[in-house]
Amino acid sequence: MAQNRSGEDFVKPIRQLAVGLVVLCLLAVFLLWRIDSPRAERFRAQFVDWVVPNMDWALVPVTETVDLVRRFQSYAALQKQNRQLRDELKQMKAWKEAALQLEQENAKLLDLNKVRLDPALTVVTGQVLADSGSPFRQSVLLNVGAARDGIQDGWAVTDGLGLVGRISGVGERSSRVLLLPDSASRVPVTIQPSGQRAMLSGDNSSLPVLDFIESPEEVRPGDRVVSSGDGGVFPAGLLSGIVVLGRDGRLRLRLTADYERLEFLRVLRTRSAEEIYPPEGLIGPVLPEPAASLEQTDEAADG
After folding, report:
1. Do 127 and 264 touch, CB atoms closer than 8 A?
2. 3-state DSSP helix/strand/coil % of the chain, to nearest 5
3. Backbone dihedral region of 157: left (phi > 0), alpha (psi from -120 to 50 degrees) or beta?
4. Pairwise CA distance, residues 262 & 269, whole Å
5. What are phi and psi of 251, to 5 degrees?
6. C-alpha span between 122 and 1 (Å, rounded)
7. Which of 167, 219, 178 is CA-nearest to residue 201?
8. Contact indicator for 243, 250 with CB cutoff of 8 Å
9. pTM (2 decimals)?
10. Tens of pLDDT along 129-186?
11. Could you tell me if 191 and 180 are in contact, meaning their C-beta atoms sit under 8 angstroms apart?
């Protein structure tokens, strides 16, 4: 206890002396800065030139702190700008997807316009609403129907490449298209260039079968197949596909239409065959009998 007290008694006077010296120095500096004389001015200038360059170390924390604050503000501004750019990038991606979809739809519509059809035929373009394809039935639903567009059963349907199927079921605002690969589909076709007639029969595969070919030996893989128009169901000359040889050895058809991307289809308004009524209209007027036959008839009557 005595040693602690002696230590405190020794430190206290030194502390008081140091405080007094600091106060005196500050008072002297104050008075020196208040004196208005050339000597005092020169002394102040020399003092500043000597002290200020040697005080750079004391300003380092201040400058670093200022730089840190500026960097933090710049980082906050960059973060805000980065967030804005990310939002704009998301919007641009959405616009890009929309632009790609519009480009694809435009390309498909342009493909539809490239298909050459009989000038007498008129078309109705519809969009595929749903694909009800299954292992047992292959069909799609269009957004055109009987009330607004006058769609009828049996009309041919094409895409931008070739024949797709026929209308099989019509509603007021929608209609169903039976695709060529469906097992219920039967289409009379012509094989070019041989001109052989055949029946395109769907079997729920991607390669429908060519049945009832008149002369199979005249048909070669790679021949073009178009609708024949027999039966009055489909117009003649609609491209259907290319002849290929199946794994089972049967002649099949590689369809021209792209069934993987059916988005827009064209329904061909087919004019029904004009009926002749009464049927006697097909029979011409009765021709007069030749004179020789009349004389023979008279002789037979006299005899």
Report:
1. yes
2. 45, 20, 35
3. beta
4. 20
5. -80, 125
6. 119
7. 178
8. no
9. 0.53
10. 877 655 557 889 998 998 888 898 889 999 877 899 999 889 888 899 999 999 889 9
11. no
Q: What percent of the chain shows pLDDT beyond 90? A: 20
Helices (H), 136-206: 146-149
d(CA 79, CA 15): 52
Helix (H, G, I), strand (E, B) or coil at 250: coil
User: Which neighbouring-strand residues pair with 269?
Assistant: 122
Which secondary structure element, helix H or strand E, spans residue 119, and what is its range? none
Peptide bond into 38 cis (omega under 30): no
- Residue 201 has a pLDDT of 94
Neighbours of 3 (CB within 10 A): 7
Please compute, for residue 145, the number of CA atoms within 13 A of its CA located in the half-sphere on the CB side: 10
221: amino acid identity, one letter: P
**Cβ(199)–Cβ(187) below 8 Å:** yes
pLDDT means over runs of 10, the chain (303 residues): 57 80 81 70 70 63 81 86 86 77 68 58 82 69 88 88 90 91 92 92 92 90 90 84 92 90 84 54 53 54 53
Nearest CA among 142, 115, 154 for reference residue 271: 154
Other C-beta atoms lying within 10 Å of the C-beta of residue 277: 7
Chain centroid to CA 205: how far?
Answer: 26
Distance CA 220, CA 204 (A): 23
Q: What's the token pair of residue 291?
A: 């004179």
DSSP conformational letter for 259: T
Q: Which residue from 270, 264, 210, 199 is spatially nearest to 234, judged by alpha carbons?
A: 270
The three-class DSSP label of residue 269 is strand
Give the C-alpha separation, 45 to 183, whole Å: 108
